[in-house]
Amino acid sequence: MKFIPNITFLRYFFSAGQSKSISRASKENFVSQSAISQAISKLEKTLGKQLITHEKNRFQLTADGLLLLDKCKQIFTVFSEIEDAFNETDSVFKGKLSFACTHSFALSLLPAYLSKLSQTWEKIEPILRFGHTGTIVELVKKGDVDFGIVLDNEDFSLFHSREIYRGEYHLYTAKKFTANAKNKFILSEERKEVSLLKQHFQNNGVEIHAYMEVSSWEVIASLVEQGMGIGFLPDYIAGKRALIPYEYSIPKIPYRILAISPKNRKLSRNAQMFIDLIGQI
């Protein structure tokens, strides 16, 4: 029997497959979880293939499901290109815009960018994914998002990259600094910027030890606000909090925030527009 696909069913399956969650797919498509499940079941019946493992509270694609997910990615990429072409003719921006970023970026800088986007092009529908840098890189590589927003503390030479923000790392304390917080440094895991900070202290004959090692800058900022220690943070995190620079001066340790996308794939028109918009703010 010739397979005649139902595009809506494929869209629901694709959304669930990308997010690995029927719940998230239902929210993205503004339908019930039952509608997503039924669409997948109907696709399985039409194809005569099992697409997901039918286990309670677990979503996992089978080999056939992974094959269909890859084909859906190709199908919806073509649809997106068609939409881009017609939107360009009409000089408008509308439709999906998918990207991934860290939670710290989303909580600190992203709201202003999305607000500007909404004011400028209200018919754009952002789809956001969150995670650490490694997660973001994988989402970009697989084409699950149009682009990723990352800090430039790794090698991104395999990607197209564009700077969208820059700043510096500083030591911060609470505005109401307490003696209890003195010499208690709260640092993230060992990364380039942390190594540079420690090297500076060593060069000045001071040994610095982390009172706490925390993998989230937002959590570090919250702990510092509570007077629990001295935090080492990028300035965009500290900007909207009750924090002040620590009295001890350190050399400039700069950072850049980049928008990255695969070199072998053209950015969608919506993605290019949003990155340009960020650069103007």
Automatic annotation (TrEMBL):
UniProt key word Chloroplast: no
Keywords, comma-separated and alphabetical: DNA-binding, Transcription, Transcription regulation
Stored SUPFAM superfamilies: Periplasmic binding protein-like II, Winged helix' DNA-binding domain
Keyword Transcription: yes
InterPro entries in the cross-refs: LysR_HTH_N, LysR_subst-bd, WH-like_DNA-bd_sf, WH_DNA-bd_sf
Single Gene Ontology MF annotation: DNA-binding transcription factor activity
Pfam family for this entry, one: LysR_substrate
CDD domains, alphabetized: PBP2_LTTR_substrate
Domain HTH lysR-type: from-to ranges: 5-62
Family: Belongs to the LysR transcriptional regulatory family.
Name the UniProt record assigns to this protein: HTH lysR-type domain-containing protein
